[in-house]
Amino acid sequence: MSVSTDRRPQTSRTNVWRIPSERSSLEWLDCDREFVSRRYDRIAGLITLFEWLLFLPRGLRKQAVAHIGLKPGDRVLEVGCGTGRNLALLQDCVGPTGRVYGVDISQGMLARARRLCEQECWANVTLTLGDALEYVPEEPFDGALFSLSYNTMPHHHAVLTHVLAQLRPGARLVIMDAKVPAGIFGNLILPFAVWLNHLTVLGNPYIHPWRQLAPLVDNFAMEERLFGAYYICWGRKRAKDR
User: Which of 43-47, 124-128, 236-240 is least confident?
Assistant: First the structure.
């Protein structure tokens, strides 16, 4: 396993998202990147528990990785790789001749991912501490994955366009995350979702990554799980800008 340690990102401006006609209790305050990093350092050991409490569908990670369409020898990037929950799936897809790259802003999360790599003796996994917006590979990637990470990034759209620029033409980018379901049920659980995500910084419930990805890629597709509480969306990098 290769390890790259970069300096912590500079603190960014705080952004406030306000939903018209909603009570102030439903405001969303996007924290700066330094705060997000520190919070994830603290909750790194609780990620598995959060997945259980929030009913992460069984097999969702495997399904998301499958949509990247990787083959042996490929190079793949996971943006916000966290504690390494997807590394085994990605490593299985690219095989010993491929490479898996992970970048995360949290030192505490990456420490757990590195221990996993050491335990599994993965020599083709490279983990980098730093801001994904500043991550530039030596060669283009054959695929990229955001897994339960996109909504946690205050500068998510900038990261998305940056990561797309690091892919070879035709490569797939996949986003897997939770969302507030449509309809009455979604309206009922929105206050809880906002409260929980303020407490944990698990993600901004007001952004819609699929709407941001769709106009940037070819062959966009999306599927939902658990009554619309989770989704996977993906698309291919265009051969050239339109």
Answer: 43-47
- Our count of domains for the chain comes to 1
Give yes or no for a contact between 229 and 179, defined as CB atoms under 8 angstroms apart. Answer: yes
Helix 87-94 / helix 107-120 crossing angle, nearest 10 deg:
50
CA distance 92 to 74: 11
Structural contact between residues 150 and 209, judged by C-beta atoms closer than 8 angstroms: yes
Lowest mean pLDDT of 49-63, 190-204, 220-234, name the range.
190-204
8 Å CB contact between 100 and 132: no
Residue-level pLDDT at 190: 73
User: Residue 184 is encoded by which pair of tokens?
Assistant: 């009455």
Residue 212 has pLDDT above 70, yes or no: yes
pTM for the full predicted model? 0.82
Given the structure tokens 């944990």, which residue do they identify?
Answer: 200
Distances (CA, A) of 109 to 40, 76, 167: 7, 19, 25
CA atoms of 162 and 154, how far apart (whole Å): 14
Q: What is the CATH number of the domain that holds 191?
A: 3.40.50.150
